Amino acid sequence: MTFFLQLVVTGFAQGMVYALIAIGFVIILKCSEVFNIAQGHFVLIGGYLGYTFLVPFGLPIWAALGMAIATAIVMGLIIERLILRPLLGEPVLAVIMVTIALATILGGLATLLWGAEYKAYHGLLPTITMKVGEISIPSESLIGLIVSIICVVLLMLLFRYTKIGLAMRATAEDLQVVQSVGIRATTVYAVSWVIACVVGVIGGILLGGVSGANMDLANVGLKAFAVVLLGGVNSIGGAIFAGIILGMLENVAAGYLDPLLPGGGLAQVFPFLVMIIVLIFRPHGLFGLARIERV
Amino acid sequence: MGLRTGTFHENYAQDMAIFHSGLQWGIAVAFIIFLFACPLFFSDRILTILTTMGIAVISVHGLNILTGYCGQISIGHAGFMAVGGYTSAILCAKLGWPFWVALPCGALAAGIAGLFFGLPSLKIKGFYLIMATIAAQFIIIWTIIQLRSITGGADGLSVPKPAIGSIILSSKTNYFYLVMVFTCLATLLAKNIVRTRAGRAFIAIRDNDLAAEVMGVSLWSYKLQAFFIGCVYAGVAGSLLIHYFSFASTDQFPFMDSVWYLGMLIVGGMGSTTGAIFGAVALKLLDELVTMVGPILSAAVAPQAAASLALISHGLIIIIFLIFEPRGLHHRWEIIKAYFRLWPFSHQEIE
After folding, report:
1. Rounded Cα gap, residues B259 and B322, in angstroms
2. Structurally, how many domains does chain B consist of?
3. Cis before A138? omega within 30
4. Is A112 an interface residue toward B (CB < 8 Å)?
5. Looking at residue A49, what is its pLDDT?
6. pTM of the predicted model, to two decimals?
């Protein structure tokens, strides 16, 4: 029982980070109807940025986080302006392929700048230990959990109480109406990409703090897709819920089934099994809107 | 598209013909003769490049029918190639079946895998279908690694050299001929499939699936047919690839290859058999360029520059084509042809 609870708690914290990354994806999707395959690579870049600012630069954690976020903002603006803007209104395949190409380029840049090597910065994040009964919650997971919750709350506040948040919600609702009342849709797109980059990078630093930064961080993006599909592609609340569920399921499944399977590695393929099942039985996810097509 | 001056079509058969004039027949025959004369004056290295190009062309033809004509986007093509390749490898290596029986079986197995993973396409499209096919890629590769007793798992599986009758295809020249025969047949078949009833149904589904259904095109049947045909092509390409290296390993079918096949389709021009060939050849040439320039760059800049150059150049070329020439090389080729056809009266709108 302790083993089970331990898996669930670790899974919960991990799932919260997945949820954070998935939110970046959902925001871009809601605002500009772009499916951003490169979300995982923002995480990758984030993991390596965290390493760069913490280890070679030797910055304190808060300064490093600030620098990484600043880099993410610049990155988001450049990506939106140079790559996505020319493809406004193109068919879905073109837009998806361009984000895949973007993912490849980011992967290439990470290889060039950091040599695709394993960079550990374990123990540089602040440590908090907590014990509930017999279950000890690992410090990194707890940090991840806290930071993710702070980010999610900040995003909620942004959407609820600021003008740009309102504009973003309105754009998600109806692009034509937004344009007719004089809101610049391109600004909304740029902000959505910036947010996606920032949450991706923060997620990368959190995950990098647990297991170090390497090229595998990009695969977290694939888990984020499973989260998004499970929660419903256009629901932020759904993404949070599904992220937690998937994080727990993955940990429990890996904990109990991996010893039974010869090759192991169920955790890697698990998100895809979830994805296929969701796509076959409930394509719009748990909380998404079922799209009704009209001619 | 205008015709050459002096060529007139008087009936439907002429309109639908692949070759409109004696000149086109001549060029096609000359090209095929040139292709089969290649081993006479090219080195083994160039033959290797041409062989892998041929395999890529077969694979991209399949993807073109599925994605370019039927509009069902698949980023799991390398996974389906793996199904075909591993099936024929297992039949050859473990059961001792002859190559020419194992290859169609591999193709069939890939087609059936395609049918299975194509099932979600009946309910979903666009991004959702892309995610389903990405999932297919990873699930297939994971399954192959898990079934260690049959497939050799992560260690791979060595396959005997393919033989047809008493001829053992051990040299590069032999295998080059085999692949080229398959490539030519695959091209001809692809060109003809899109002229049939099924091909027209695919195009109708791609352009507007609701309208197609209202017109009486059975989405259920034709979407699955497209998946089956596309994946059979992938299966043939996968078996050819595995028998070429006499070794089957999951590393030969990485996820990124699935992306490159789609990239080839975009660079070449979607929904065009010629485009599929152009795209496969162009990106394979780019690959070769990268392998040539990579070591120089690695020595000059940093050891990891070669790997990153490959990734960045591929990503950039896809982005550049999507932004500046979304209709691909095929469209450029048509413009060039039209220019010469109409010269010196070079003014015509090209669709």
Report:
1. 14
2. 1
3. no
4. yes
5. 92
6. 0.86
User: Is the minimum CB–CB distance between B153 and chain A shorter than 8 Å?
Assistant: yes
Residue B59 within any structural domain of the chain: yes
Q: Which residues of B touch A291 (CB under 8 A)?
A: none
Taking Cα atoms as reference points, which of A16, A69, A19 lies closest to residue A42?
A69
Q: CB neighbours (10 Å) of residue A215?
A: 17
Measured between alpha carbons, how far is A118 from A98 in angstroms, rounded to an integer? 28
Q: How far is B337 from chain A (nearest CA, A)?
A: 26
Q: How many residues does chain B have?
A: 351
Q: What is the CATH number of the domain that holds B186?
A: 1.10.3470
Interface confidence (ipTM) of the complex: 0.82
Q: How far apart are CA A124 and CA A118, in angstroms?
A: 16
Instruction: Tell me which chain B residue has its CA closest to the CA of residue A86.
Output: B323
- Cα–Cα–Cα angle for A85, A91, A93, rounded to 5 degrees: 100
CA distance A109 to chain B (A): 6
Whether residue B315 and residue A116 make contact (CB cut-off 8 A), yes or no, is: no
- For B57, phi then psi, to 5°, come to -60, -45
Of the residues A268, A272, A274, the best mutation for testing chain B's interface (the one with the most B CB atoms within 10 Å of its CB) is A272
Q: Name the residue of chain A whose CA is nearest to B297's CA.
A: A112
| Backbone CA torsion sign across B268, B270, B272, B277 | positive
Give the pair of three-digit tokens for residue B84. 């075909």
pLDDT at B156: 83
Q: Provide, as residue numbers in chain A, all residues whose Cβ is less than 8 Å from the Cβ of B312.
A: 104-105, 108-109, 112
**Domain presence at residue B131:** yes
Report which of B179, B201, B232, B221 is spatially closest to residue B61, judged by C-alpha positions.
B232
**Residue tagged 């005997």 (tokens):** B160
CA dist., res. B15 & res. B7, Å (int): 11
Query: Which one-letter DSSP state was computed for residue A83?
Result: I
Q: Which pLDDT score is estimated for B2? A: 61
pLDDT in tens, B38-87: 888 888 889 999 999 999 999 999 999 999 999 998 999 999 999 999 99
**Would you say A286 and A229 are in contact if contact means Cβ atoms under 8 Å apart?**
no
Q: Is residue B29 part of a domain?
A: no
Domain boundaries, chain A: 15-212
Chain A positions in Cβ-Cβ contact with residue B131 (cut-off 8 Å): 225, 229, 275, 279
Range of the domain at B130: 41-342
